[in-house]
């Protein structure tokens, strides 16, 4: 059998799994078809990682969607290659606001996927060192501190790690009022925490990723996608984060750096949880108005962040993934579910 030197093969002992570019076709039923051929190893096709070989082969067909789960098994049944969805094995992520609530859910999700999380928070005392092992490093800091990038540089250097992922999760949620009632100081504070700090850390992260690529995930808000009464500073800052996301994705995509955002809806944690139970009008608008008819939990958002940080989204950049139970799409409170009227 002849070999095309442009097509990779995956080494499996003294044999290899050869995946040809021509074989990566889409069947009439719409599913990607992988045809494996048995061949002998040659110097031209010797690769150390079966996964890298498969991924390189998949890249020959840009019109094939990313496979959430890839299992390629030799016809002669000697080995099975499997791809773990959302794996972050060997990756290092800086996660701001990661010591509690949504941030902590993101940290746990990343660590469960094999990643190392560097948690930046004003208070990291709630993180149990016994449960952290080497998968979690902490840095007590305010994201508005202009020296934070230098401190992160020192931490990465001491830990012998390189930056792969940045999650800008830290944020300030305040009602703030409308443009006639919000003070300039309140407005500026929202911008400093929710936008300027994101810009500063993202610029730092990009400088670390220029030659090796990476992923930045900004946690915005559904309030950044729609106008919300009395949320002048917060909505403005979160909307600006979406603009920054698209701009940086455009500028640094050629360097292999992806920049995306997650826009959570009403998440039941912290002050928001208190607001939900204290304000009947808020419950009616934000919960009854959502097709899913419930609040979100941090565990609903963390997988979306992990997806955008992982290789599963390697062809996704400049996008906003809204995780809000459908609220922004269908804000029309319904008294009864269909079928019960």
UniProtKB/TrEMBL annotation:
GO BP terms, alphabetized: fatty acid biosynthetic process
Superkingdom of this protein's organism: Bacteria
Homology family: Belongs to the short-chain dehydrogenases/reductases (SDR) family.
Residues passing through the membrane, by range: none
InterPro entries linked: NAD(P)-bd_dom_sf, Sc_DH/Rdtase_CS, SDR_fam
Keywords: Oxidoreductase, Plasmid
CDD domains found in the cross-reference section: SDR_c (cd05233)
Protein name as annotated: SDR family oxidoreductase
Gene Ontology MF: a single term: quinone binding
């Amino acid at each position: 059998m002849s070999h095309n030197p442009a097509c990779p093969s995956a080494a499996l002992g003294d044999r290899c799994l050869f995946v040809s570019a021509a074989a990566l076709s889409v069947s009439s039923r719409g599913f990607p078809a992988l045809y494996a051929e048995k061949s002998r190893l040659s110097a031209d096709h010797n690769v150390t990682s079966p996964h890298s070989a498969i991924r390189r082969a998949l890249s020959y067909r840009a019109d094939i969607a990313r496979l959430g789960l890839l299992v390629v098994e030799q016809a002669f049944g000697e080995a099975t290659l499997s791809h773990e969805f959302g794996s972050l094995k060997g990756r290092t992520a800086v996660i701001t606001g990661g010591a509690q609530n949504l941030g902590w859910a993101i940290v746990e999700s990343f660590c469960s996927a094999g990643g190392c999380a560097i948690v930046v928070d004003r208070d990291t005392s709630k993180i149990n060192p016994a449960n952290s092992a080497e998968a979690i490093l902490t840095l007590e800091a305010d994201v508005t501190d202009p020296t934070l990038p230098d401190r992160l540089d020192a931490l990465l250097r001491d830990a012998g790690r390189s930056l792969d992922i940045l999650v800008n999760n830290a944020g300030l949620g305040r009602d703030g009022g409308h443009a006639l009632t919000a003070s300039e100081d309140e407005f500026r504070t929202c911008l400093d925490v929710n936008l300027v700090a994101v810009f500063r850390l993202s610029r730092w992260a990009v400088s670390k990723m220029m030659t090796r690529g990476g992923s930045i995930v900004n946690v915005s808000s559904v309030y950044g996608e729609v106008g919300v009464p009395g949320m002048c500073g917060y909505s403005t800052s979160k909307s600006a984060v979406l603009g920054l996301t698209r701009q940086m994705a455009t500028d640094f995509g050629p360097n292999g750096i992806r920049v995306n955002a997650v826009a959570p809806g009403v998440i039941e944690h912290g002050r928001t949880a208190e607001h939900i139970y204290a304000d009947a009008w808020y419950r009616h608008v934000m919960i009854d108005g959502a097709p899913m008819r419930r609040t979100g939990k941090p565990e609903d958002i963390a997988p979306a962040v992990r997806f955008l940080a992982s290789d599963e989204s390697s062809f996704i950049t400049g996008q906003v993934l809204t995780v809000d139970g459908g609220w922004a799409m269908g804000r029309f409170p319904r008294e009864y579910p269909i079928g019960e009227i």
